[in-house]
Design brief:
Blueprint: E1 2-5, E2 53-58, E3 61-65, H1 67-87, H2 93-124, E4 129-135, E5 138-143, H3 150-177, H4 182-202, H5 210-223, H6 226-253, H7 257-286, H8 292-295, E6 302-304, H9 309-319, E7 323-328, E8 331-337, H10 338-341, E9 359-360, H11 373-383, E10 387-392, E11 395-401, H12 402-419
Parallel strand pairs: 1-5, 3-4, 6-7
Antiparallel strand pairs: 2-3, 4-5, 7-8, 8-9, 10-11
The structure holds zinc ion (ZN).
Zinc ion binds near residues 1, 3 and 210.
Length: about 425
């Protein structure tokens, strides 16, 4: 169904543990946006970035199964088992359920085939594929970067629906070839229809569905502008998402509760994914032209390497600053944070120096003054760090805090909305 770019987990040089935030679509279910000023704003592409247990490897691509997928697997198996029982009362109960399970497995093999087809085309363009994950809404192929041209986007996207159409054709032919073999016929009959539906649903021209990517590829080709194309595809995605939600509610009020709620839920999922892709573009535009030097604080707080943790904590309380460059003989030797200091038991603070808890200079992630702010923010997110020194010619010339970039983003986004 979806394919998208890798999502980084947010995290801290401060050593704060990172937690996966669900992303829908490129993979991500609308996480908190920058307009809420959430420090965990995500720059990854839309989409739930599901992880899960590993099934195996196909064409060198690891295939994962997210726990949420088990729900849908069970639902489909039960639906099929019941359906076969109604349609073929002459079969044994074991036959109903065995065929239900086998058909369900073949369906998910079809979904993997669909994702693999996106992946194979992506690989042709030297875009590496990190993983394929099955989750509650289908499959998700994660690629390491965006396509670099409209044509690439179009071809990677269309490969999925084409592969599903191909499978639909294959199952259709097998079903027609063995009309007398009831079991095979029943399974293939269901499989060709579901693959056809998969192809058609994915062709809906709304981001983040394949159809939305196809639309973006076309719009990108025509306008030559990736951002505008993304906005168009994301707008179409929101339109179709609302349509699905309304249709789901309508279904529910007409007695089809399960189907209606499910439809509305898929609509909601698509809505958040479409929104997120739009936010990506806004973020990128908002920070265009801003460099590390523009947003760094030139005031670099330092502490001597020999002070005790007790003294360090007092310094933090006195100044309110939670991270410091550690110096030895006037030269920077590391970075210490309140968080790392607190990893030492309270009773040892007086007799422990900050050296054992500091991060050595060589391991610090640093920015150069010319580095674009967006790149700095992305690195902070992927490395899970909250502050980064800016180093020029071996000297620390400033500090960047993630909060500062996020505040700037928030302000600019708000002003942008006022201006437009
Ligand atoms: Zn697809």
């Amino acid at each position: 169904m979806a394919w998208g770019q890798k999502d980084d987990e947010a995290g801290a040089q401060e050593g704060r543990g990172s937690s996966p935030v669900s992303d829908a679509g490129r993979n991500s279910a609308g996480g908190p946006g920058p307009n809420q000023g959430d420090p965990r704003v995500r720059l990854g592409q839309a989409g739930t970035a599901p992880s899960g247990f590993r099934l195996g490897r196909v064409l060198g691509i690891p295939i994962y199964v997210h726990p949420s997928w088990l729900i849908i697997f069970l639902l489909i198996t039960i639906t099929l088992g019941k359906q076969f029982a109604v349609m073929h009362p002459n079969w044994s109960q074991q036959q109903h359920w065995a065929l239900g399970i086998i058909t369900s497995i073949l369906f998910f093999a079809s979904v993997i085939f669909h994702e693999l087809s996106h992946s194979v085309v992506a690989k042709l363009y030297k875009i590496s594929v990190e993983s394929i994950t099955l989750f509650v809404f289908g499959g998700l192929a994660r690629i390491t970067r965006d396509p670099s041209s409209a044509k690439q986007e179009f071809n990677i996207a269309i490969a999925g629906p084409l592969s599903s159409l191909f499978l639909a054709g294959c199952f259709f032919l097998v079903a027609r070839a063995v009309p007398n073999h009831q079991l095979v016929f029943a399974a293939c009959n269901w499989l060709w229809e579901i693959n056809l539906m998969l192809a058609l649903f994915n062709l809906v021209p709304g981001f983040p569905l394949d159809g939305g990517r196809i639309l973006r590829g076309i719009a990108w080709g025509i306008t030559g502008n990736f951002d505008r194309a993304t906005k168009i595809a994301s707008g179409a995605g929101r339109f179709f998402a609302y349509l699905l939600i309304f249709f789901g509610v309508w279904q529910a009020f007409n007695g089809n509760w399960v189907g209606g709620v499910w439809t509305a839920f898929i609509g909601w999922f698509l809505l958040s994914a479409a929104r997120e892709s739009y936010v990506q573009v806004e973020l990128r535009n908002t920070l265009t032209g801003v460099r590390a030097a523009d947003i760094m604080s030139r005031d670099v707080p330092t502490v001597e390497r020999n002070i005790s943790i007790d003294d360090y904590v007092h310094e933090v309380m006195r100044t309110g600053r939670r991270f410091h460059i550690v110096t030895g003989a006037g030269k920077p030797v590391g970075l210490v944070t309140l968080h790392s200091a607190r990893s030492v038991p309270r009773e040892e603070w007086a007799n422990t120096s900050i050296q054992p808890v500091m991060m050595p200079f060589e391991r610090i992630h640093a920015a150069s003054p010319e580095e674009p702010a967006l790149g700095v923010l992305q690195r902070m997110q992927s490395e899970d760090i909250n502050q980064m020194p800016v180093i020029s010619e071996g000297r620390i010339v400033g500090m960047i805090a993630r909060d500062t970039i996020l505040r700037l983003l928030q302000t600019r986004l708000q002003l942008g909305h006022l201006a437009s």
